[in-house]
Specification:
Rossmann fold; 14 helices; alpha/beta; 44% helix; five-stranded mixed sheet; 429 residues; seven-stranded mixed sheet; binds glutamic acid
């Protein structure tokens, strides 16, 4: 049987169309919001260490900036496509609107595999991407941030290139900068912590004690690691995580039924997020195939890797025990699988709320960078908690009141806010 392939942009449009029809948005507005306002496709020549020049393909998509400058990460991934970046930029628009921060949606990507690039080649790629896009981005236009396989180090190279081109200091050009170089305390932890701030609220609504729950993650990157550590410190048990083994070109799952020691695991994980299997085995963990993350007997599943991971082909592998799915990743569930999750009555916390902690903290970073005054970590995290909790409460209340599925209710809130902005600006009547 040929496995069905999913196009994230088609998924994002299908999700939008469904809710646009429920709300009854007029055709002009629908047409404006179901696709990006602007997109840029660039070629980036990079001087390689062996003396050759390699040309990479990069993208920046600005889906909508009616509520504020476009905002969103830049991914380095060998399977990056224009359509994936389009979808992700669209989800950023809904994400920023959902948590009510004054930003629009954008996303960037470069088709590359950083595993095969030296430090200086990665620096060349970062600078080259900015060189091609410096005229169409900026602190008041479009503000990038870290994402899959990019980090604070990459952000600073990008900032330096932007500032060199524009001849000044523009710390608001990019977020996710290193602390001490315009970065915000708490930014690294923000996405993962945000997942748990929201999960904690949801469990209260469901009448479930967090301390009595178990979690299985897909992934062990920035999201899963910090979400897992906060969740464990609140008394929950992380049973499994998964990661990508670039050498073997496959993923694997690490499990310990009575609870993983995430700090120990982080200590045996390389800079690309690959856990050392031998050391994990020696520490009493089990090593299972990569796709086993989905069939763990846990109360809560948190997919925190890439898009299109939960599909009709694997949804039946989700254990009957699972009561909650929190989408730590962007777009981990395909629309056809989403229907099945709804039918099974699993409580879903949709991606553009669940993982909005990162961009919310990016907004705080911009505020701090632009005023050149930096907050204490506790202040950052307290504000993050309040902002996300308020967004979750509004969503839960709407979903309860209108008896709506959580993802649909989230779309209703986010789309309505963006519709209001494009109308107030007079882009559509
Ligand atoms: N890449 C993160 C996301 O998908 C953060 C974006 C940002 O901080 O702008 O939400």
């Amino acid at each position: 049987m040929v496995e069905k392939t999913y196009n994230p942009y088609e998924n994002a449009q299908a999700q939008f169309d469904k809710v646009a029809a429920i709300i009854g948005i007029d055709e002009g507005t629908r047409d404006l919001l179901r696709q990006p306002l602007r997109e840029f496709h660039v070629l980036i020549p990079v001087h390689m260490d062996d003396g050759s020049t390699k040309v990479f393909r990069g993208f920046r998509v600005q889906h909508n900036d009616a509520r504020g400058p476009a905002k969103g990460g830049i991914r380095f991934h060998p399977h990056e496509t224009a359509d994936t970046v389009r979808a992700l930029s669209m989800w950023m628009t809904w994400k920023c609107a959902m948590v009510d921060i004054p930003l629009g949606g954008g996303k960037g990507g470069v088709i590359c595999d950083p595993h095969n690039l030296s430090e200086s080649e990665q620096e060349g790629l970062c600078r080259g991407w900015v060189r091609q896009l410096a005229k169409v981005m900026g602190p008041c236009v479009d503000v990038p941030a870290p994402d899959v396989m990019t980090s604070a180090k990459h952000m600073l190279w990008m900032l330096d290139e932007y500032e060199t081109i524009h001849g000044g200091r523009y710390p608001g050009f990019i977020t996710g900068k290193p602390v001490g170089m315009g970065g915000s305390l708490g930014r690294t932890e923000a996405t993962g912590y945000g997942v748990i701030y929201i999960l904690r609220e949801a469990l209260k609504d469901l009448g479930i004690k967090l301390e009595e729950t178990t979690v299985g993650f897909q992934g062990f990157g920035n999201v899963a690691r910090y979400a897992g550590s906060l969740y464990s410190s609140l008394g929950g048990t992380v049973v499994s995580v998964s990661c990508w083994d670039n050498g073997a070109k496959q993923s694997f799952t690490i499990r310990k039924k009575d609870g993983l020691d995430l700090e120990m695991l982080a200590g045996i994980t390389n800079s690309y997020g690959t856990i050392d299997r031998e050391k994990a085995l020696a520490a009493g963990c089990e090593v299972l195939p990569g796709d086993e993350w989905i069939s763990q007997e846990v109360d809560i599943l948190i997919p925190s890797a890439l898009e299109n991971q939960i599909t009709p082909a694997n949804i039946n592998r989700i254990s009957k025990k699972v009561k909650v799915i929190v989408e730590g990743a962007n777009g981990p569930t395909t629309p056809d699988a989403d229907e099945l999750i709804r039918e099974r009555g699993i409580f879903l916390i949709p991606d553009f709320l669940a993982n909005a902690g990162g961009v919310t903290c990016s907004y705080f970073e911009q505020v701090q960078s632009n005023s050149n005054f930096f907050w204490e970590k506790n202040e950052v995290l307290d504000r993050l908690n309040s902002q996300l909790t308020a967004a979750y409460r509004a969503l839960y209340d709407l979903a309860q009141k209108k008896k709506m599925y959580m993802r649909d209710a989230a779309y209703v809130i986010a789309i309505n806010r963006v519709v209001q902005a494009v109308k107030m600006r007079g882009w559509v009547r």
